[in-house]
């Protein structure tokens, strides 16, 4: 089957959020809701913002909501949807915190959205204050993985029951991932996919792990051809059974390959009974990538390849035009530096040097570059 992937800058109106990093956003009821983050705006140290921003995906119009009371401004927090609620946990104010807040998304339509601080039941333990962790929701429960306060902790797992408002700490079965911060996470069914991140000593990581909630067990991905390089802080999202990864940093001032997109078809992997390494199926399919440019005869250029050796089809070729990755002058530098000053466990200032001078994208137009698709996919 044929695959065409394009990206374009979305022009928006309204009260647009200021440039920021280490914020969180969720998509719900046709709205993109953004909260928190480190907002540099050329300032040092970077400022923070506790306003709620809502982008109507149909009209592409931003609305800024100053809802009070609200969580104190922060960054490196976690957030996810749990039912009809946006839930925020932890992050960095001046120091890491461990409070839990929710925002009822349905109240947006009624015009009276309100934040609620979720009070933990008396006698319940709680996770330590932390930043750089990740969180997902499954069957009205929140699952928090990792993070740290004064150091990057092991991958501890905490579950919060939204009904009883109690926390429980667990240790997963099987091989446990190395400790890390700034990892990326997404959920497919009961499988929590955790990828990348960084450690204080080793820098960026390129591995992927899966935690099966219903089995309470960790599984490790084998090394795959054309898998993402070691990086941290990228976006990982789920569309039906497929996971897409984009962006990230390999060092403080060095971005991962400009706008390379990775895709994983989760239908083409198995979790072996009694084992801890995920089994990858073969997929005898043929795919084509279309170059949006046309050849001299008016026909469309394309790349066609045969059966893959990984989970689905591994393809690479020019796809479309998209936004250029920022250079080292971006606001993220100051945001990351402020994190290093405020939270010792992140220590991002010790990880990187300048941007890679050999990066072919650095000489491109400042707004537009070609995108390359590196997709591990079945049929799309």
Automatic annotation (TrEMBL):
InterPro entries: Kelch-typ_b-propeller
Region described as Disordered: 289-364
One of the Pfam families matching this protein, by short name: Kelch_KLHDC2_KLHL20_DRC7
Keywords: Kelch repeat, Repeat
Protein name from the UniProt record: Tip elongation aberrant protein 1
UniProt lineage: Eukaryota, Fungi, Dikarya, Basidiomycota, Agaricomycotina
């Amino acid at each position: 089957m044929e695959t065409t992937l394009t990206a374009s800058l979305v022009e928006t109106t309204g009260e647009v959020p200021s440039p920021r990093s280490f914020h969180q956003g969720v998509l719900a009821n046709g709205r993109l809701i953004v909260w928190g983050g480190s907002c540099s705006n050329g300032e040092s140290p970077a400022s923070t913002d506790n306003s709620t921003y809502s982008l109507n995906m149909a009209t592409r119009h931003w609305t800024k909501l100053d809802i009070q009371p609200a969580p104190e401004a922060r960054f490196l927090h976690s957030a996810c949807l749990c039912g009809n609620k946006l839930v925020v946990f932890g992050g960095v104010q001046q120091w890491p915190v461990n409070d839990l807040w929710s925002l009822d998304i349905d109240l947006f339509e009624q015009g009276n959205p309100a934040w609620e601080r979720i009070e933990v039941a008396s006698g319940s333990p709680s996770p330590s204050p932390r930043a750089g962790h990740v969180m997902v929701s499954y069957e009205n429960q929140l699952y928090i993985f990792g993070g740290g306060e004064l150091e990057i902790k092991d991958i501890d797992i905490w579950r919060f029951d939204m009904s009883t408002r109690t926390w429980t700490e667990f240790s997963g079965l099987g091989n446990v991932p190395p400790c890390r911060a700034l990892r990326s996470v997404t959920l497919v069914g009961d499988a929590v996919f955790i990828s990348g991140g960084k450690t204080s000593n080793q820098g960026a990581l390129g591995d992927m792990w899966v935690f099966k909630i219903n089995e309470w067990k960790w599984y490790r991905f084998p090394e795959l051809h054309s898998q993402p390089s070691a990086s941290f802080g990228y976006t990982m999202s789920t569309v039906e059974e497929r996971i897409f990864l984009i962006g990230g940093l390999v060092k403080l001032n060095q971005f991962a390959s400009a706008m390379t997109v990775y895709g994983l078809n989760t239908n083409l992997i198995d979790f072996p009974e009694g084992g801890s390494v995920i089994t990858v199926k073969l997929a005898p399919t043929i795919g084509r990538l279309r170059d949006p440019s046309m050849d001299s005869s008016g026909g469309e250029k394309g790349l066609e390849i045969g059966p893959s050796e990984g989970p689905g089809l591994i393809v690479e070729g020019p796809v479309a035009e998209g936004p250029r990755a920022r250079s080292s002058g971006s606001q993220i530098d100051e945001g990351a530096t402020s994190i290093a000053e405020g939270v010792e466990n992140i220590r991002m200032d010790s990880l990187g040097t300048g941007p890679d001078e050999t990066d072919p994208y650095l000489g491109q137009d400042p707004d537009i570059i070609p995108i390359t698709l590196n997709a591990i996919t079945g049929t799309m």
